[in-house]
Amino acid sequence: MEAPSPPLHIAMFPWFAMGHLTPYLHLSNKLAKRGHKISFFIPKNTLNKLQHLNLHPNLITFFPITVPHVDGLPHNAETTSDVPFSLAPLIATAMDQTQKQIELLLKEVKPQIVFFDWQYWLPNITRNLGIKSLQYMILGPLVVAYVENLERQSQGRDLTEIDLAKQPSEFPDTCIKLHSHELQFLNLVRKLEFGSGVLLYDRMGIGAKLSDALAFKGCQEIDGIYADYLQTIYEKPVLLSGPLLPEPPNTTLDEKWVAWLKEFKHGSVVFCAYGSESQLQHNQFQELLLGLELAGFPFLAALKPPNGFETIEEALPEGLSERVKGKGIVYGSWIQQQLILEHPSVGCFITHCGAASITEGLVNTCQLVFLPRVDGDHIVNARVMSAKLKVGVEVEKGDEDGLFTKESVCEAVKTVMDDENEVGREVRKNHDKMRNFLLGKNLESSCVDSFCQKLYDLV
């Protein structure tokens, strides 16, 4: 009988954003559960925010990184959640300045593979040390496949919005229809400098070309066609890690939320979370809250203060606090999203369409409303979930300006919350099917086992 393979030693080095650090730790837990050893590189002051999510402290070791100060950043800023979005490129510059520190750490801990995402310079370090590098993206492969195909077709020339609007010729799907404002955004992002004079697109593109392999969140049944497609483009292994379902948390919901939520009947509360690092413009912040009020359901909205405001209170629509007192809360700090979604009183989840949030929504029973942040993967996630898989409803926005109204927010919420609405019935049925598929016996387990086998093949 063949002896079992010895455990792997993997280093994790995600981009300095909570929306990347957290999924990387979720994946680490799943790998550690199978006996693999994980060295997790993390900004030192951020360690406290993630420590409680480490379910295998005997196998997952945190290695604190000192993030250098960069002119223009607030003192002690380490991750994108410490700064407004406009300063995120300076966090990237600070991360780039950890190269020497990372090289010394890698020499010390000697992993076999390093997972990274936006550190395009890492493969050059790992190659010199005889370590394999794997670019692990916390999103599904679809958005990368879509944009990468367009880049290939451009053959080096500048892409126009007309190019971006075309369905890529060899692309294995037809569900992506982009609005005018989204095309404008994608065109801008391709030229966006994101720290150290490097284009954001190049952070991912150079990393993908230099790494030994790529990997994405996802499973063969849903994402396989896009992963296979990317494998033909990059001519290197493209792996899928499984859907990264949230582990049962080892904490309980704060008493203040338990007390508030139990006041309402089963499935009646709308929970809106717009991402720990996403800020709305003031008029959109107000339209969202007025739309929640208009829908008439109790609501809990976890939002950052909009651009230009220090506090939530000063940005609220006039008179809203009094009108929704007792049945509407706008909360400006980090919130226990997973535990709130699991609460029986919550019947609807309005999400900004980050990959982790969508998965948390899909495995719970609350209905889904998609209000994508204008960001490549968020837009594509929303379109796939609403137009292809039909597991929720997307809030309608203006094609040119990308703005939503209180009426469009209200309409989307009422559609999914109304038992008599035909569209609502369809998305509920599809959501139920998807939830049962994702939570099905052995789905994730077999995905992660297959992923591990491919990691062995890599080393």
Summarize, please.
The protein is α/β, with parallel strands linked by helices. The chain contains 19 helices and 13 strands.
Structure description:
The protein has 459 residues and is of the alpha/beta class. The protein contains 19 helices and 13 strands. Strand 1 (9-13), helix 1 and strand 2 (37-43) form a beta-alpha-beta unit. Helix 4 (99-109) runs parallel beside helix 5, helix 6 packs parallel to helix 10 (220-234) and helix 12 (282-295) runs parallel beside helix 17.
Architecture blueprint of SSEs:
Layout: E1 9-13, H1 18-32, E2 37-43, H2 47-50, E3 60-65, H3 88-96, H4 99-109, E4 113-116, H5 122-129, E5 132-137, H6 142-154, H7 161-165, H8 180-190, H9 200-210, E6 213-216, H10 220-234, E7 238-240, H11 255-261, E8 269-273, H12 282-295, E9 299-302, H13 320-323, E10 328-331, H14 337-341, E11 346-351, H15 355-362, E12 367-370, H16 376-388, E13 393-394, H17 406-417, H18 422-438, H19 443-458
Parallel strand pairs: 1-2, 1-4, 2-3, 4-5, 5-6, 6-7, 8-9, 8-11, 9-10, 11-12, 12-13
Helix pairs in contact: 4-5, 6-10, 12-17
Low-pLDDT segments, ≥5 res: none
The helix content is 40-55%
Biggest sheet strand order reads 3-2-1-4-5-6-7
Number of helices: 19
Largest sheet: 7 strands, parallel
Q: What's the number of extended β-strand segments?
A: 13
- If you compute it from the alpha carbons, what radius of gyration comes out, rounded to the nearest whole angstrom? 22 Å
Distance between the termini: 22 Å
Q: Which geometry do the CA atoms define?
A: globular
Average of per-residue pLDDT values: 92
Category by helix and strand content: alpha/beta
Q: How much of the residues is beta strand, in percent?
A: 5-15%
